[in-house]
Amino acid sequence: MCASTVLLLALVPAGGHLVTTTDCYRKTRIFMETFLPKMGITVTVIDPADVKALESALEINKVSLFFTESPTNPYMRCVDIELVSELCHRKGALVCIDGTFATPLNQKALALGADLILHSATKFIGGHNDVLGGCISGSTKLISEIRNLHHVLGGTLNPNAAYLIIRGMKTLHLRVQQQNSTALRMAKILEEHPKVRCVYYPGLPSHREHHIAKKQMTGFGGVVSFEVDGDLFTTIKFVDALKIPYIAPSFGGCESIVDQPAIMSYWDLSRSEREKYGIKDNLVRFSFGVEDFEDLKADILQALETIESA
């Protein structure tokens, strides 16, 4: 979050304008909606696939920055990085992609035309569910502007955290390879399962932006979101029946993690407020670790069996 907030404060001037997408990390959205307006900064929120809305925002406002995740959290929506970079650069706006879900291995946003790439190093880069950190990559000019403000605001990584992140990066390629493979295989199984209503994974042909993901990603990541066929309590029952994953609001580590956003990341909102952000009661976000595929498959299938058929 320190990386995100410092980046936004450094690159969007007071009274400036920012464009972002509907589906995104909740804390980033809160910062944009509640804090940035105090500096006179206005925000346009668009659907990740709505290129016309981006063009219109760039036309109407003097946009400093387009900030989005790709894939997004938790519905794994994908933005055509090459296209949005071209549109934004034409109007003098910068593009920052939060590539945390993609990992630096599966997607090279800078090579696709983005100006900056942001990662939560807490997730796949650290990879062991034991360290907090963030990182930003881009040109020396932009990074220097961000770094100067970062030195003023603080939020510095401590040496032990830096050591843990370096350690994690040594196995990043091995972990991500395994996670890509397990997630894709499991997404296909879940999509066919009668007790699963819907699966959100950019590697599936049924995904809204599969054509974009296929073009700009070499693997589709280790996180699969899906809707269980049931209500809030049926979903709680399913999550509780799982034996392998930890129940926690994180992802990208060696250990599998399961998250039910309605009662975890969005626990403080009423049902109608959650639905405004598209967070359904039966939504599950599953981060696949490096455990054996057959063990994970058996665990998920047995947990789904605890759900009574409608």
TrEMBL record:
PROSITE patterns: CYS_MET_METAB_PP. One of its GO terms (cellular component) is chloroplast. The keyword Signal applies. Keywords: Pyridoxal phosphate, Signal. GO terms for biological process: methionine biosynthetic process; transsulfuration. Residues 1-16 form the signal peptide. Its cofactor is pyridoxal 5'-phosphate. Pfam families: Cys_Met_Meta_PP (PF01053). One of its GO terms (molecular function) is cystathionine gamma-synthase activity. Belongs to the trans-sulfuration enzymes family. PANTHER family: CYSTATHIONINE GAMMA-SYNTHASE, CYSTATHIONINE GAMMA-SYNTHASE 1, CHLOROPLASTIC-RELATED. This is CYSTATHIONINE GAMMA-SYNTHASE 1 CHLOROPLASTIC-LIKE. It comes from Salix purpurea.
